[in-house]
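Input/output pair, single chain:
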Amino acid sequence: MLQIERFKQIRALLENTPTLRINQISEMLYVSEATVRRDVAAMEKNGLLKRVYGGVTLNTEEMPLNLRSFQYADKKDEIGKQAAQIVKDSQTIFIDSSSTVLHMLPYIKHKKDVTIISNSQKVIDSLAFTDNKLILTGGELIPRNLAYVGELACRALDMYRPELVFFSSQGIDADGEITDASQTETTLRRAAIKRGIQAIFLCDSSKAGRIYPHHVCYKSEIAKIITDSDFPKEYL
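Output:
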């Protein structure tokens, strides 16, 4: 089993059982305790979990982008494909830095004369050699996901009025409140939603029922939710 796969399985175990000991993880994954210790050390270094008395638990801060991209990749890819179908040539759109929204990129490369505004360095790098106009907000860089945030990024958005704003977040509850763990990225998303004509929320089913500290918006404030077939109907 690849290390990245073990990372995902360890996170999945901790989502169901908040605290686990090394020997418990070892037994559940059928790998040695030494392997688990190495994985735990690497995951702690990357901010994915933290050690507590009696074992390890999830870190409530956001997972780095390179690892988030592997989570529910098939679902995110289908969501990204559906979202890209909405984009028409010559439109102006905003794309945020979330891993779900980044799955749009392979499907919009063929679009023509689209103005794409983003706070994500990955978006700019991925679409650099396409027939589209790219605008990076600038601002303070968050290294873990190559996203720009802060007052400068929000001010840059004031210069534009995108027809479509594509964004994601870490949770949506049964009342339709969309929340996230990152205050700075939440502020940026709220600024983008405010400036956009229509906001489109990309959300895989794993995020249903999850609640985080920072309010992004309510589903009543957005035009569309794009999700997968496992998403609970009562949340839509």
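DSSP finds ten helices and 14 strands in the chain. The longest helix spans residues 3-16.
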